[in-house]
Amino acid sequence: MNIYNKCWGRFIVLALIHFYMAGVFQNIAYADSEEIVLACNNFPPFKIEKPTEKMPGHDVEILIEIFKRMDQPLKIEYFPWKRALMMAKNGQVDGLCSCSHTKDREEFLYFSKTLGNISTGIFVLKENAPIQLTSFEEVSDEAFGVVDGYSLESTLEKAGVENISMPSNDESAIKMLRVKRFDFLYSFEAPVRYYMLKTGLSDQLVYKEFAKQDYFTCFSQDNQENAKLRDVFDKVLAEIKADGTYGAILAKYRQ
């Protein structure tokens, strides 16, 4: 009888330990075996659709590390930006690798904690430098270029700018600026500089920063479970920032 009681007691203790540990790990793992699909747009050096030397972009590397620690299968697919955004809105993908926060996107996306930040400003041909202006209102009668889908054109429209061209990507925008299809290119600094370096134009364009803004990994609200996914993602994002992994990945792309 004593042996039976001892065995039963051990069983209860082990069972309690099991359920306790399961509860602990549930807080740090998403525990979904289904593959999570995030849509990226080509946005080097953050996200590089056709990478070389095993450098897919620092945001992509950060995402891979986060989902690896979550023990969650991840698939990244590339689409033009406007299509990627619509797919996330409609639930065709689980989310976007990254996006800016806008009021209208709150209706269909869950935003993570800050994934990174990026500078926005204007590029002009070197022959038109230095850039003296301090506001867009000062040059509202000039021609501007803004990449379609970046949600930057609203800033120009509020300043009264009416002549706005909207090329499909940064590479096309640079070409249009060079042949003077518009006077100013309003865009994110990093991808434009990437293409400038790639095409040997680093000494031909001048940049003036107007703002820095945070960006986030964005999960589709079409699946309510993505709120839980976002919460676990945020915990692991904080973890890789704290242990130096985040900074080490960024440093690779600054060399």
Explained architecture:
- The chain has about 260 residues and is an alpha/beta fold.
- It has 2 domains: about 10-115 and about 215-250, Periplasmic binding protein-like II (D-Maltodextrin-Binding Protein, domain 2), CATH 3.40.190; about 120-215, 3-Layer(aba) Sandwich (D-Maltodextrin-Binding Protein, domain 2), CATH 3.40.190.10.
- The chain is about 40% helix and about 20% strand.
- It has helices spanning about 1-25, 60-70, 80-90, 155-160, 170-180, 190-200, 225-240, 245-250; strands at about 35-40, 75-80, 95-100, 110-125, 145, 165, 185-190, 205-220.
- The protein has an 8-stranded mixed β-sheet with strand order 2-1-3-8-4-7-5-6, sandwiched between helices.
- Helix 2 links the parallel strand 1 (about 35-40) and strand 2.
- Helix 2 crosses helix 7 (about 225-240) and helix 2 packs antiparallel against helix 8 (about 245-250).
- The protein is globular and about 55 Å long.
- The termini are far apart.
- Mean pLDDT is about 85; it is low at about 5 and about 10-30.
The CATH topology of the largest domain comes to D-Maltodextrin-Binding Protein, domain 2
Annotation field: number of helices: 8
| Average residue pLDDT | 87
Strand residue percentage: 15-25%
Shape: globular
Largest sheet composition:
8 strands, mixed
Radius of gyration: 23 Å
Which residues form runs of ≥5 with pLDDT under 50? 3-7, 11-30
Number of domains: 2
H/E series:
HEHEHEEEHEHEHEHH
Distance between the termini: 71 Å
Helix content: 25-40%
CATH architecture of the largest domain: 3-Layer(aba) Sandwich
Strand order of the largest sheet: 2-1-3-8-4-7-5-6
CATH superfamily label of the largest domain: Periplasmic binding protein-like II
